[in-house]
Amino acid sequence: METTQIKPEISAPAPGGPKFTPPKKRKWVKWVKRLAVIAVAAGLVLFLLNQCQSASTQLVAGAYLTETAQVRDMTVSVSGTGPIEPVHSYRATTLVSGEVLEAPFEEGETVNKGDLLFRIDAKDVESNIQQLELSLRSAQLNLDDLLKRQNDGQKDRQVKANASGVITKLYVEKGDTVAAGMVVADVLDREHMKLTVPFHAADAAGFFEGQSAVITVDGTLDTLNGTVDSIAATDEVGPGGALVRQVTLLADNPGALSEASRGTAAIGGIPCASGSTFTYAASKQITAKASGELETLSVEEGDRVYDGQVIGSVEETDMESQIENARIQVENAQLSLQNARDRLEDYTITSTITGTVIEKNVDTGDNVGGSSASTAGYTYMAVIYDLSALTFDVRIDELDINKIHVGQKVEITADALDGERFTGTVDKVNINGTTAGGVTTYPVTVKVDGTPEALKPGMNISAEIVVEHAGEVLSIPVDAVKRGNEVLVAGPGCLDENGAVTNLAAIETRQVTLGRNDQNYIEVLDGLSEGDIILIENQASNMMAMMMGG
Question: I need a surface site. Which of 32, 168, 400, 425 has the fewest CB within 10 A?
């Protein structure tokens, strides 16, 4: 049986009657809704607080990494990197241009020091050398001629007596200008007389210079002792057609003889064919051999002089400037010739080392020099490596360089040879440092032990130079030490059962005394005990906390 509800009809108000007002809701319904909203909000806040507390706990736990102070076997070393290089290398280049006439080697071959690598056509330079040699010879001849003329001029400047005797007349005075060949003085030797008389040629043939003779003065019958001064080399026809030879005799003048006196002579008892007139032993004129001012004159009329005596000098002509210019020309010619010869050596290229040919970029018939290399696409004509030993350079920080010494052992690894290790020794420590960014580093050369085939020139390697083997020492990670040699230590209640930091208030700060260190760990001499748990700030976690806080 269906029930039908009948809604009461509400009559519209009569015009001008009172308006209809709906009934008001009860106030307790509103408060119920408000309390429901507050309850939901409180639940949400409690949930978020719980989540934040959990996240905070996680952040605190992850803010630090833990390490244990323990005894480790420590080896103190200094590290560096660098590329492997052969102990010696030679990269052939040229300073000249021309066609390659010889290149007697191939890639992969071994060449010795001094072996010919390339010979370049040098005909132009060789021709130039010949011309320069001629120029030098001409310049040298010119200098030699000037020096000879100067030397001869120095001799000619001297005015010398050409006979022994007395100066009977001077024609010049000191300061006068003379010309070559001009008479300066007359010399006369009156103390000695000469008599030239003929002897029969057959008799004269047996005479000799210096032989004694007896001279008879005509009209006085006085005799003089004389000597044979000279004998004519040829015969002549004498009186009556007989062959005679002239013989000159020399005798002292007793004082009365003059050139008007006559006499005869006998040599070895053999008389002369006829008599003759006496002459003075010397009657000559002294002449100047050079032109110029007579600077000195050391004799006067009546003075005695001897043959070859210097009696004056003539001013030297100015030849020094000419000689100096000639010397400069010779030096310039020598320098030009030497430069050309040195340049000729550039046309022959030899190996400076013994090694293996790694590259050969030029062959016989190629043209080199100028733009040839860039056009052909090569930098060096040839490259030679001495692979008998391998080396590399590493740069060491200024703080560590004083720890490095020649002979120290080096442990070597290569990026390209994973797992393989090699050894070497410090070969050279260079004190020529390079500064960049306020830090100075020094190159250290390491020589690889042996010749490992696996290591190839150009490979990048890492080197650990063993400075000291410290042995078993108490140590902690280097990163655990803060400024001022302070270390964070986990005190009682700091860590939970999992070793995570849960109580920041239990973290202790300790001052430690440090010793030696390697790349990862540092020795602790005082301030920690073996087994102490130290804390290292987790930089990654701190960065995350900062991001969340932001």
Answer: 32
Question: Are the CB atoms for 513 and 481 separated by under 8 Å?
Answer: no
Q: 232-249 b/e with 16+ CB inside 10 Å = b?
A: beebeebeeeeebbbbbb
Beta strands in 218-354, from DSSP E residues, in sequence order: 223-231, 236-237, 243-252, 262-267, 270-271, 276-287, 292-297, 304-305, 310-314, 348-350
Q: Are strands 434-436 and 439-448 parallel, antiparallel or unpaired?
A: antiparallel
pTM above 0.90, yes or no: no
C-alpha to C-alpha distance for 538 and 61, rounded to whole angstroms: 10
Provide the token pair at 140: 């040298």
Q: Which two tokens stand for residue 182?
A: 């001009």
> What percent of the chain is helix, strand and coil (3-state, nearest 5)?
25, 45, 35
Q: Where are the alpha helices (DSSP H) in 159-253?
A: 201-204
Q: Alpha-carbon distance 183 to 172, whole Å?
A: 8
Which DSSP symbol is given to 482? Answer: B
For the record, the structure tokens of 256 come out as 């009365």
Work out the angle between the directed axes of helices 320-345 and 123-157 (0-180°, nearest 10): 160
The Cα 235–Cα 46 span in angstroms is: 164
> Residue 374 in 3-state DSSP?
helix
Mapped to the 3 state alphabet, what secondary structure does 13-58 carry? CCCCCCCCCCCCCCCHHHHHHHHHHHHHHHHHHHHHHHHHHHHHHH
